Amino acid sequence: MDLLLHICCAICLIYPLRVLQSKKFKVKGFFYNPNIHPFLEYRRRKETLQILNSEFKLEIFYPEYKVEDFFRSINFNEEKDKRCLLCWKLRLENTAEFALNNGFSSFSTTLLVSPYQDHIKIKEMAQEISRSKGIEFYYEDFREGFRQAHNEAKQKGLYCQNYCGCIYSEIERWKALVKS
Fold first, then answer.
1. CB 65 within 8 A of CB 94
2. Confidence (pLDDT) at 152
3. Which residues of the chain have pLDDT under 50?
4. Where are the beta strands (DSSP E) in 31-144?
5. CB under 8 Å to 57, separation ≥6 — which residues?
6. Which alpha helices (DSSP H) does 6-66 contain, by range?
């Protein structure tokens, strides 16, 4: 089965890709993350993915970075609960649309590896997008491989970010560090 895998970052790709390939999926990647801010952070994450991919040899699509897509999608919904839902929806809808328009039979996301994301809401949202667009969403709980992937990334000297990606999550991260 041809599967388009939304990639949120290089580290989160490691475990899901291995699992999917072991299940004989023909995987291609989709690095669509207009939420990542600032642009230098986006570039660093993209470069880290390209470094990791020199090992994996995965075909990855890199749509143009358009931070305005993110800001338009969350406009006046900057609170964490609202903005994260809108951000996931933006990235999953674009992944599903790209998959549909490029002959893939299904799509999934590396967001399903992170213990820091609302796994149930991501799954439900992706299933709804799947129904509305008419393309299969492949669900698997990849969280058991999160730590292993992070340890492997550190051993390889790969950049591991310390916030989700958007400017709001960066601010929240720094405020939490200042309080400690």
1. no
2. 97
3. none
4. 60-61, 106-109, 136-137
5. none
6. 10-22, 39-56
